[in-house]
Amino acid sequence: MPDIVTKKQNYGKIAFHGVVEEKHPDKEIFQLMSDIKNVVLGKEVSFDISKFDFSDLTDFQKKVLIKQSEVPFGKVTSYKKLAEMIGKPKSARPVANVLSNNLFPLVIPCHRTVRSDWTVGGYAGNAEGYYKQFILEKEGITIKNGIVSKQFRYPEDPNFKSI
Question: Which of 64, 65, 106, 110 is catalytic?
């Protein structure tokens, strides 16, 4: 959240309820850090989100994040498709809003969700989607002219004509 006085984001002071804060990390925390690094390197990693504290979230937010965590490595879905998968087909924009505030990025892979026209879109405060495209390409996903290639779409969309 932005600082109340300056209205600027101060990443050094961010504190979220439910996010792990350790002064002397144990073996599980070191493993989590290693797994997050591996995601950035494009390696397939499975995270157990059952231990995450979602108590501050609405049911809708929980559904979005849990369903998002099920998008497989090497595949990409759209906000519209994700909304359909949670039974809220007209909620693409609210789904996008939930993912833009994902407290567990990379662990809950919101980078694997793109616009309904299969263009990458923004990520991590960057409207051009540079970081998102970087991570997706590390996962082996092909993006041509800013559009995710058809074979990487999840679930497959037979009505979309690939460029």
Answer: 110
